[in-house]
Design goal:
178 residues; mainly beta; eight-stranded antiparallel barrel
């Protein structure tokens, strides 16, 4: 009887500790307004997601030939690892909708012809791939903030490669989650 009681306590504590384990959301669909676009984040494991974004990117350039800006179509995907759910939860901070910090491998491709603006590149496409650190937060009403900082390997249609900073600031809203 004593062994059965000990086994029951162990078994119940196992489920209780698993139930308190924070996990990523199964799916989050959001719209970005700062750089207009749509984004879907798919939960893979307890702490990893795949994030897909179709939208726009912004570029500004000033040099000896003048200055210009452009808004370009862009496709971006990230494999994210969220590393501070438990720490945020222990401090009583929000972790819903993957409100946490993450490390990711980011890959993006964009066109060289702007939708808006005068900054046109010679190449018809270019891209970058590299590691990033990110901070994502969802607030009341579904407001979303996502900051991305990193560096990577850039490439273009001409076959050139170069160092590429990877920077992103997204502001948007949750449309729905699954």
């Amino acid at each position: 009887m004593k062994q059965l009681l000990l086994f029951s306590i162990f078994f119940c504590s196992l489920f209780t500790s698993y139930a308190q384990q924070p996990t990523v959301e199964k799916g989050i669909f959001s719209a970005n307004i700062l750089t207009p676009g749509l984004e879907y984040e798919l939960g893979l494991t307890l702490t990893t997601t795949l994030d897909f974004r179709v939208g726009t990117g912004f570029a500004y350039q000033k040099g000896m030939f003048g200055e210009g800006y452009g808004v370009y179509p862009i496709f971006n995907t990230q494999y994210r690892y969220y590393y501070n759910f438990k720490k945020r939860m222990d401090k009583g901070k929000n972790i819903t909708k993957n409100s946490a910090n993450y490390l990711a491998l980011s890959a993006a491709v964009q066109t060289g012809k702007p939708i808006i603006g005068s900054l046109e590149y010679y190449e018809s496409y270019f891209g970058a791939i590299g590691p990033v650190w990110g901070l994502q937060r969802y607030y009341k009403g579904g407001l979303k903030l996502d900051l991305i900082l990193g560096a990577g390997y850039g490439f273009n249609e001409s076959g050139e490669s170069f160092f590429s900073p990877i920077l992103g600031l997204r502001l948007g809203w949750l449309l729905f989650k699954s």
